[in-house]
């Protein structure tokens, strides 16, 4: 039998909440039931769990959870709330005798004045709690939350609109979210080694949760850069392997590699198995199904563009390159741009080859807001790979989507060749009629970004 719980979320990254809690539930072997369709614009959500311990597990691991409460009721008025709460007497009656307690009355998008906080607390007098009121260390904490509409961008008096809430929620605190402080712990500005492409702490933690990072897991980042995903996945207990086409990003300028120095700062350097320099399209892997997850933020050309080995244009007049030149200088192989749409397609193929059955590929994909369609993500899929989450971080005219793909097949596939082959625009995908072409919004993203996302035919003014 499932019981309802009130989840209170941090009012950030709304699109990431449900994928995160579902991932942590899967990691710990339990399920979550939705009694109603979740509304990501609101910080409150009622979900059903089989055990109170499951709520504690989620509160201790999910980055976006502020607190979880045993759910007693809600209403558009306090009269409705009290009726709902009386119907849950079997849940709270055991606390009536000999239980110290504390009431918290707070609001979202509003500040409740103290005099009315007292009124609200007194309105629950029918619960007849006989224990002591303990404001410092109570046996239970009861939370009452008033939800108000957003008034951002408007000027108003301090308590204007007090009492005009959309809904009021009530429950007993199970556990405060203890994972959110990790955002400060992994703050890039406090890190010993970082670069201009380092992923912000909150996003790298969310990505680690999507990858199901945990002890016994082996996780790979093929575009590791300065190692933002290495620290968070290793912190959650996973073993980490990273590679990049540019070894300077991983090493830094000191004798000890920068990623190892930063990992030592977080006490996880022993979980960084190795860091290698190679092009992901010319990788050294000789067998597949090695990793439990692949997690990465591929370069898409805003701060750094993706590269792969090869020349931009073939020059028959140039002498053939040799790894050992006449003056014995280090050989630097030529590179050429790696178009984002091709990179995304190749990344999925690489994931199918390197992931164990059931393994996850977690990566960011930038898109143009006005051009994006749901089918865009499916243009890069291949047989045996399925999208299970697609969350948007919105920046206005563009955004980036955290895409989570699961390997659904146990069939063994050969190593991908990474040939351009069929163009992205002509690939057959679900939802697009055969014979028609579909150009995903992330194709030529770099050019669109520096052109200011102007539509075709639109000129500068």
UniProtKB/TrEMBL annotation:
Key words, A-Z: Cytoplasm, Methyltransferase, RNA-binding, S-adenosyl-L-methionine, Transferase, tRNA processing, tRNA-binding
Entry GO terms, CC: cytoplasm; tRNA methyltransferase complex
Gene3D superfamilies xref list: Vaccinia Virus protein VP39
Organism expressing this protein natively: Gloeophyllum trabeum (strain ATCC 11539 / FP-39264 / Madison 617)
Domain Ribosomal RNA large subunit methyltransferase K/L-like methyltransferase: 190-313
Similarity section: Belongs to the class I-like SAM-binding methyltransferase superfamily. TRM11 methyltransferase family.
Protein name: tRNA (guanine(10)-N(2))-methyltransferase
Example of a GO biological process term: tRNA processing
Pfam family, one: Tmrp11_N
GO molecular function annotation: tRNA (guanine(10)-N2)-methyltransferase activity; tRNA binding
Subcellular locations according to the entry: Cytoplasm
Top-level lineage group: Eukaryota
Annotated InterPro entries: DNA_methylase_N6_adenine_CS (IPR002052), RlmKL-like_Mtase (IPR000241), SAM-dependent_MTases_sf (IPR029063), TRMT11 (IPR016691), TRMT11_N (IPR059073)
All residue ranges annotated as the tRNA (guanine(10)-N(2))-methyltransferase TRMT11 N-terminal domain in the record: 5-177
Enzyme Commission code(s) on record: 2.1.1.214
């Amino acid at each position: 039998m499932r019981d309802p719980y009130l989840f209170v979320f941090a009012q950030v990254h709304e699109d990431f909440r449900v994928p995160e809690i579902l991932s942590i539930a899967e990691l710990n072997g339990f399920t979550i039931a939705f009694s109603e369709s979740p509304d990501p614009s609101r910080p409150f959500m009622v979900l059903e769990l089989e055990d109170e311990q499951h709520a504690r597990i989620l509160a201790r691991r999910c980055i976006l959870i502020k607190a979880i409460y045993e759910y007693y009721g809600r209403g558009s008025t306090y009269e409705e709330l009290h009726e709902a709460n009386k119907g849950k007497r079997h849940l709270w009656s055991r606390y009536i005798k000999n239980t110290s307690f504390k009431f918290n009355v707070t609001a979202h998008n509003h500040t409740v004045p103290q005099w009315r906080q007292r009124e609200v607390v007194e309105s629950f007098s029918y619960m007849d709690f006989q224990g002591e009121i303990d404001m410092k260390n109570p046996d239970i904490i009861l939370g009452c939350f008033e939800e108000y509409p957003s008034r951002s961008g408007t000027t108003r008096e301090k308590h204007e609109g007090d009492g005009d809430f959309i809904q009021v929620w009530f429950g007993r605190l199970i556990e405060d979210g203890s994972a959110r402080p990790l955002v400060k712990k992994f703050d890039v500005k406090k890190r010993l080694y970082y670069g201009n492409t380092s992923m912000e702490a909150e996003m790298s933690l969310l990505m680690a949760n999507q990858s199901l990072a945990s002890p016994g897991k082996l996780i790979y980042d093929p575009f590791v850069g300065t190692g933002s995903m290495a620290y968070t996945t290793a912190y959650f207990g996973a073993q980490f392997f990273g590679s990049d086409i540019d070894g300077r990003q991983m090493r830094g300028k000191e004798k000890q590699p920068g990623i190892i120095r930063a990992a030592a700062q977080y006490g996880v350097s022993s979980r960084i198995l190795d860091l290698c320099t190679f092009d992901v399209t010319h990788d050294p892997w000789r067998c597949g199904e090695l990793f439990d997850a692949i997690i990465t933020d591929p370069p898409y050309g805003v701060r750094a563009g993706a590269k792969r080995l090869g020349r931009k244009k073939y020059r028959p007049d140039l002498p053939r390159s040799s790894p050992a030149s006449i003056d014995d200088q280090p050989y630097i192989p030529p590179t050429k741009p790696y178009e984002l749409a091709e990179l995304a397609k190749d990344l999925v193929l690489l994931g199918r080859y390197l992931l164990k059955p059931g393994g996850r590929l977690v990566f960011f994909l930038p898109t143009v807001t006005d051009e994006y369609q749901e089918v865009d993500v499916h243009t890069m899929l291949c047989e045996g790979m399925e999208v299970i989450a697609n969350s948007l971080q919105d920046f206005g005219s563009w955004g980036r989507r955290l895409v989570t793909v699961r390997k659904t097949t146990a069939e063994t596939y050969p190593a991908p060749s990474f040939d351009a082959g069929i163009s992205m625009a002509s690939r057959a995908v679900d939802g697009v009629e055969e014979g028609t072409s579909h150009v995903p919004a992330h194709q030529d993203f770099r050019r669109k970004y520096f052109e200011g996302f102007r539509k075709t035919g639109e000129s500068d003014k």
